[in-house]
Amino acid sequence: MASRKKEVQIQAEITSQEQWNEAMSAPGLTVVDVYQNWCGPCKAVQNLFRKIKMEYGDDLLHFAVAEAQSVEELCPFEGKCEPVFLFYSGGKAVGIVRGVKGPLLQKTILEKLEEEKKKQEMGSEYVPEVHDISFEEDTGKLEKMHSGETNEDQSASYYVAIIKPDAVAAGKVEEIKEKAIKAGFCLVAEEERILTEQQIKDFYQAKADQPQFEELVQFMSSRPIHVLILSRKSGNSKKDDSAWAELIGPADVDVIKPPKRPRSSRDIQEKLELSSHDSKELASRELAFFFPSFGEDEGKQTTEGGYKPKIQKTLALIRPSLLREKKGEILKTIHESGFQIAMQKELTLTEEQVTEFYKDHAGQEYFPSLIKHMMSGPVLALALTREDAVQHWRKLLGPKTINEAKGKAPDSLRAQFAVDNVPINQLHGSSSPEEAQKNLNFFFPVEHTLAVIKPDAAKEHRDDIINSIKEAGFCISQVKETKLTKEMAAEFYKDHQGKVFYDQLVDYMSQGPSVMMILSKENAIEEWRNTIGPVDPDVARQIDPNSLRAQFARSVLENALHGSSSVDHAKKNIRFIFGDIDLK
After folding, report:
1. 99-126: per-residue pLDDT in tens?
2. Which residue in 470, 476, 474 sits closest to 515, CA to CA?
3. Which of these, 102, 153, 239, 402, has the minimum number of CB atoms within 10 Å of its CB?
4. In the beta sheet, which residues pair with residue 579?
């Protein structure tokens, strides 16, 4: 059984002047996260620090956290409203990074570490490139900038909006986004995700002493949330803040119980929790919490003409004659052209399906021949991915008619893979991103399946498994933690009734809470079954060591996860656990 490793504390905690003096006397570079007692350290940077420490493993590099109120030297930062990372060498401050900017933070750490190594090697002969700095002078400039007393250009203000679980379930996301855009905000990024209880506790740590904190944790981890990054650049930060305050409404809305009368988009009927801009430190930390890599692309060069290619997905169809004669050859060519095959399905189309798929061609002279040919044998539908997949695939295909392809683009795929005595070209490609999505939905419709993290795995590996589910591209549409009674477990697994392991299975499934999820994705049922792996974890470790059962299952009986085996089975399972819900 896979075990979860306990993470080593990467940052030393400094809570007194004595501890500060001791940390500053250590040889090498010390990076200090300065925080306020009402906010706490920035957890978003811990993975970055751990990664740097593992990669460079230098004894000269140290990380620490210190509360601004507890150390005399940090008084200039007391009550300040932005995350601050200080760099110390030999007890002297040699650098500062404001805000949670991963790339800048990493660059500064490595630069200062290199200087520290030179200092150690050269001793008294070393002349530092950057001398120690005065934080009092630096923070004064910052205060002027925030108060509008400087003419320096202001960058866009960023805000984090969290659309809460029941608003997401009620389909309010688009409505809230429209309100924000009408108020003059730009949508920079968004993500739907499910948070674990521990993540909720970390995020809302400032509310931990409130009486309804546990209720809040249960509510916020009960279903998916939707997170938005919004920006507004008016050149006037106070004006931006005012617009933000007006958008979110009063801040005193009870997070659990709905008010008797709706007041604004802040009200519970839309469940919109926002990081108010009266605390830039909280907003910046929340940004890092949900989007730790935000800003990493700043300063990167785009391709010619300022255009930055996007990863896309497009549909490719290999028609019957080519599939019969040269399937392997065309698949090899597709791979060599830089495409990845995200999904594939071989199927024989009915007349109704072909007519529906090519309805835009109805009335054309070639339409009857196309219908007949597409029904003459199996076709292979492929979901291809790469940068600008739609454009690249269309360019590779070449002209639509075989004669034109051979005459004008002899290197095109339609020319190379023309089949003798077949007048219809043998390859199809979507003509636009919009058509690609429509085509993909036709051949790979979004499916819903029930996934269950069984009691022992839910207790020990819930977070790891949920992270793996998201990394595999599944959308968690619904989730709840439920302890099945023996009667419920018996009904859920009634198809196994009469088998020797049935009673043990019922006992196992009713021993503690399970995490029940509805997963949504194209081809979700088959993909989830592939993701969890064979029923026997010993077999899984041999043939698919990356599968979830290979990593987390104990035995054939205690195999960590359940997945529906068919569309009908999935519908029945979902109805049993979640009741009659509308899944689009």
Report:
1. 766 777 888 888 888 888 888 777 766 5
2. 476
3. 153
4. none
- Cα–Cα distances (Å) from 140 to 76, 144, 238, in that order, read 9, 6, 19
**Which of the following is catalytic: 277, 428, 461, 562?**
562
Query: Which tokens belong to 221?
Result: 């981890």
Residues whose CB falls within 8 Å of the CB of residue 296, separated by 6 or more in sequence, listed in order = 102, 103
Q: Under DSSP, is residue 429 helix (H, G, I), strand (E, B) or coil?
A: strand
Beta-carbon contacts of residue 62 (< 8 Å; ≥ 6 apart): 12, 23, 26, 28, 29, 30, 31
As beta bridge partners, residue 563 has: 451
Distance CA 492, CA 279 (A): 49
d(CA 486, CA 499): 16
Residue that has been written with the tokens 């089975």 in this structure: 569
Other beta carbons less than 10 A from residue 57's beta carbon: 8
Name the residue with tokens 């090899």. Answer: 332
Closest CA to 87 of 42, 29, 131: 29
Q: Are 315 and 436 in contact (CB under 8 A)?
A: yes
549: which 2 tokens? Answer: 């059962």
Residues 584 and 566: their CA atoms lie apart, in Å, by 18
The residues facing 317 across adjacent strands are 381, 428
Q: Could you tell me which residues are beta bridge partners of residue 159?
A: 230
Going by C-beta distance under 8 Å and a sequence separation of 6 or more, which residues neighbour residue 259?
253, 267, 268
- Taking only the tens place, the pLDDT of each residue in 447-463 is 899 999 999 999 999 98
Residues 6+ apart with CB under 8 A from 57: none
Q: Across-strand partners of 234?
A: none
151, 50, 31: which is closest to 89 by C-alpha?
Answer: 31
- The yes-or-no answer on residue 146 being catalytic is no
Q: In what order do the strands lie in the sheet with 157-163?
A: 186-193, 225-232, 157-163, 272-274
* Angle (deg, nearest 10), helices 433-443 and 389-397: 90
- In one letter, which amino acid is 282? L
Highest average pLDDT, of 179-183, 215-219, 517-521, comes from 517-521
Name the residue among 98, 84, 92 with its Cα closest to residue 41: 84
Largest pairwise CA distance in the chain: 88
User: Pairing between strand 61-67 and 92-98?
Assistant: unpaired
